[in-house]
Write a structure and sequence with these properties.
Shape: globular
Distance between the termini: 68 Å
Structural class: alpha/beta
Largest sheet: 7 strands, mixed
Strand order of the largest sheet: 16-19-20-14-13-21-22
Helix content: 25-40%
Number of strands: 23
Number of domains: 2
Low-confidence stretches: none
Length: 456
C-alpha cells in the first residue's frame, strides 16, 4: 500500500498515526500521515521566521515547477500514472483529472496574471522597491505572512488557486483532503524541487482539531467545505470560504431554447457534476415543464462509465453505499416536485463496490423552493419557473448565467450582492484566466498601503 508522508520544513515527515484512505470502490488504497498539533505549530513558526523568495525569482521557479510536475517521477509515478492513480482514488473521471492538471501547470507558468489583475491601479506593482515607487501613492503589500489552505477533494483543480499566494510572498501550509492527497503531494514536491524552500511551503495532513489549529496559527486561510464549514467561519474576516456553489442558469423567453438546453446539459455534466460551478438550478421563463422534460431526455442518454479510468466517463464513481445515499437524498426531497429523470445507482465492475449515480432532473413548482440550491456531487438539476419580478431567488450563487439577449436583465443580475460571477449565454462552468473564480484571491491576501517618500 502506498505510504504518503507529510512534507515539513526539513523534508518528508512520517508519523506513527496514519489514516487509511480508500479508493473509489471503498478498498484501502494508501496510508496518509497525520501530523499532530504540536508539530504543526512548530512548522508554522518556522515558516513565519523564513524570508520569501524575491519576487523577481518566483515566476521562474514556478515555471520550472510546472516542468517538474509534468516530467518527473514522484511517488514512483510519471504524470500519466499519477493521473490514473488519482482517478482511481477519487472516482473523478481521468479526463477531468488531466484537465485539472493542465490548469495547474498553466497557472504555474503564468502565476502573476491573477495578482496583476487584482492589484489596484493606484498601487505600485509588488516587488517595486521604495525608490522606484511614486513619491506619493500606494504600495501593494501582504496583510500577513502565513497562508493556510484547507483543500477540497472534489477536483484536483482547486490546487491551481492557492499558487498565487506563493507569488505574493506568503509562506503556505497546505492541509490536503483525505480524498485526494496525491495532487498536493505531487505539486508541492515539484515546487520544492524547482527551488521553493521547504521552509516556505509544507503539506500537513491532520485531523479536524489540528486543522482548526492551523487556521488559528495562520494569518489568512482559504477553506473549502460544505454548509457546516461556511456556518462555522462565516464571520471570520481572515478566512476566505469556498462553500457550495449553487450555480444557476436562467433561460429567458427571448433566448434560443435548443441553445439553452445545450448550456444546461454542459453545465450539469461539468466535472461529472462535482464542481462548484456545475449547474445546480435552471430557471426557465417559458414552459419550464417542457424544458425539464427535454433536459431529462438529453441527460438520460448519458451512459454509465466502465470506471474512473474510462476516457469517455461523464459521471463520478464512488462506493455503492455512498451512491445509494446520494440518490435517496435527492428522491426523499421530491414529495412536492415532479421527477422527470430519477437518479439510479449502477454497480460497476472491478474489485470493491464501485458504482455510479446517473443524472437527475426534478421540476419544482416555485423558484423559492430551497431545493433549487441543493447541491449534490453528481449531475442533478432542479428546474423552476423564472419570474423577472423575483430576482432575489437568483442570489447566493457562485455563478449565475443568463441565456438572453436582454442586456438590461444581465445588468440587473450584476447588482445581486451574493452572486460572484455573472455570465451571458455561457455555461456556468465556463472559465477564463482573466475571470476570477470567486473574486480575486489577491483582494483577500493584499492591501493598499499609503506610501510617500522623497523631498516635500
Amino acid at each position: 500500500m502506498l505510504d504518503i508522508p507529510a512534507l515539513g520544513p526539513t523534508g518528508p515527515y512520517r508519523t506513527r498515526n496514519r489514516t487509511t484512505v480508500p479508493d473509489a470502490s471503498g478498498s484501502p488504497a494508501l496510508e496518509l500521515a497525520s501530523v499532530p498539533g504540536l508539530v504543526v505549530s512548530h512548522w508554522i513558526a518556522q515558516l513565519r521566521g523564513s524570508s520569501p523568495l524575491p519576487v523577481a525569482d518566483t515566476a521562474e521557479v514556478l515555471k520550472k515547477a510546472a516542468d517538474v510536475f509534468e516530467t518527473q517521477q514522484i511517488l514512483g509515478d510519471d504524470l500519466a500514472a499519477h493521473e490514473r492513480r488519482t482517478a482511481a482514488l477519487t472516482g473523478t473521471p481521468v479526463a477531468v483529472v488531466r484537465e485539472c492538471d493542465r490548469l495547474i501547470t498553466a497557472t504555474l507558468r503564468d502565476v502573476g496574471r491573477a495578482p496583476s489583475a487584482a492589484r489596484p491601479t493606484g498601487c505600485a506593482p509588488i516587488g517595486t522597491p521604495v525608490p522606484g515607487a511614486p513619491s506619493a501613492g500606494a504600495a501593494w503589500r501582504r496583510t500577513g505572512d502565513v497562508f493556510a489552505v484547507h483543500t477540497a477533494g472534489n477536483s484536483p483543480g482547486v490546487h491551481a488557486m492557492w499558487l498565487e499566494a506563493l507569488a505574493l510572498g506568503y509562506r503556505v501550509v497546505v492541509r490536503p483532503s483525505t480524498r485526494d492527497p496525491l495532487t498536493p503531494f505531487r505539486l508541492v514536491t515539484a515546487l520544492h524541487e524547482a527551488g521553493v524552500p521547504s521552509t516556505q511551503l509544507v503539506v500537513a495532513p491532520c485531523d479536524h482539531a489540528t486543522a482548526d489549529l492551523i487556521i488559528e496559527r495562520s494569518d489568512r486561510a482559504l477553506v473549502y467545505g460544505g454548509q457546516d464549514v461556511v456556518d462555522k467561519y462565516r464571520n471570520r474576516a481572515d478566512v476566505r470560504l469556498q462553500g457550495p456553489g449553487r450555480s444557476k442558469l436562467v433561460v429567458a423567453a427571448d433566448a434560443d431554447r435548443d441553445a439553452g438546453l445545450g448550456l444546461a446539459r454542459m453545465g450539469a455534466l461539468y466535472h461529472a457534476g462535482t464542481a462548484c460551478t456545475a449547474t445546480t438550478g435552471v430557471l426557465v421563463e417559458h414552459d419550464p415543464t417542457g424544458f425539464a422534460g427535454e433536459l431529462a431526455a438529453a441527460l438520460h442518454q448519458v451512459e454509465a462509465p466502465a470506471g474512473p479510468l474510462d476516457d469517455t466517463a461523464l459521471l463520478p464513481c464512488l462506493p455503492e453505499a455512498a451512491a445509494e445515499r446520494l440518490a435517496a437524498a435527492v428522491l426523499n426531497g421530491t414529495k412536492d416536485a415532479v421527477v422527470h429523470l430519477a437518479p439510479r445507482v449502477e454497480r460497476l465492475g472491478g474489485a470493491g463496490s464501485l458504482a455510479t449515480v446517473t443524472p437527475a432532473v426534478v421540476e419544482l413548482e416555485s423558484p423559492k423552493n430551497p431545493l433549487l440550491s441543493y447541491e449534490v456531487p453528481f449531475p442533478c438539476v432542479w428546474v423552476a419557473p423564472f419570474d423577472r419580478g423575483a430576482m432575489d431567488v437568483l442570489d447566493d450563487s457562485l455563478v449565475l448565467s443568463l441565456h438572453t439577449d436582454d442586456t438590461a436583465l444581465v445588468s440587473e443580475a450584476t447588482e445581486l450582492t451574493a452572486v460572484s460571477n455573472v455570465y451571458r449565454s455561457r455555461p456556468t462552468s465556463w472559465v477564463h484566466p482573466d475571470v476570477p473564480h470567486d473574486g480575486f484571491l489577491g483582494e483577500f491576501l493584499m492591501r493598499a498601503k499609503g506610501l510617500a517618500h522623497g523631498a516635500l
